[in-house]
Here is the input.
Amino acid sequence: MSFSNRVEEFMIGQVWAHDGKNLWDSSEDKLRYRRQICQDAKSTVRSLSGTFLASDDFSTDDLIKCIGIEQFLHPEIAQHKKELKRYHLYAVLKEQSRQQFWGIRDEERLANVSEAISEWSRQKAHHLAVGYRDIFSD
Here is the structure.
């Protein structure tokens, strides 16, 4: 692995659990970021609501504005994403519980369960990446 000449490397000592909160964003910062993201997404949805959402006539730029904020476009999309996350968490925790019950530890099986459940997300990310490639390669 090599680094650019413009990259600076800093070494810090071990971060202990009680010190970690001082090095990263505070919970107030995270809440502020989340609110800003929601505000920006809702603003984008409002600006697009009268244009292409009701028709098949939309530009690539309009489509790009929607990537990552799909859950704000329609309540059913938000509900679907919540259900997928909930099911993923349930499947992983159920497998952990099964392994604990039988006194085994199989990280590979746990990873396979997680991978199988998240296939939809990986396929979506792949389609987005292909779309970006097609858009920006022209």
